Amino acid sequence: MKKQFKIISSTGFARPATLLVSSARKYTSKICLEYQGRCIDLKKSPDQSLREVMLLGIKPGSNFIIWAKGTDEHRAIESIEEQLSKKNLLIN
């Protein structure tokens, strides 16, 4: 399952990245963030995943894709979307 998101947070990508990494760890599915041809596994160690996501340099207004593959992929994507929306960090 894939879903495209657009970041609207004007403060940068640190908060959304932290939410993505912490949300992904709750699920058994493989969950990745795809941006400009690069794919980051959000299920690595939290520090490593966060560092790799931040190195992508995602800016406000940028589109990126979150995809999940596994038994709870739908729940994972819905939860990530809900968490980011609740914090007013994205447009989907």
Walk me through what this model shows:
This protein has 92 residues and is α+β, with helices and mostly antiparallel strands. Helices cover 38% and strands 27% of the residues. The protein has 3 helices and 5 strands; from the N terminus they run βαββαβαβ. α1 runs antiparallel to α2 (46-55). The longest helix is centred in the last third of the chain and has 14 residues, at 73-86. It is globular and about 35 Å long. The mean pLDDT is 90.
Largest sheet: 5 strands, antiparallel
What is Rg?
Answer: 12 Å
Please report the distance between the alpha carbons of the first and last residues.
15 Å
Mean pLDDT: 90
Q: Give me the secondary-structure category.
A: alpha+beta
- The total count of helices amounts to 3
Strand content: 25-35%
The count of strands amounts to 5
Strand/helix succession = EHEEHEHE
- How do the strands of the widest beta sheet line up side by side? 3-2-4-1-5
Produce a short descriptive summary.
The protein is 38% helix and 27% strand. It has helices at residues 14-24, 46-55, 73-86; strands at residues 2-7, 30-35, 38-41, 63-69, 90-91. The chain starts with a strand and ends with a strand.
What's the layout of helices and strands?
Blueprint lengths: L1 E6 L6 H11 L5 E6 L2 E4 L4 H10 L7 E7 L3 H14 L3 E2 L1
Antiparallel strand pairs: 1-4, 1-5, 2-3, 2-4
Helix pairs in contact: 1-2, 1-3
Descriptors for this entry?
38% helix, alpha+beta, five-stranded antiparallel β-sheet, 92 residues, globular, 27% strand
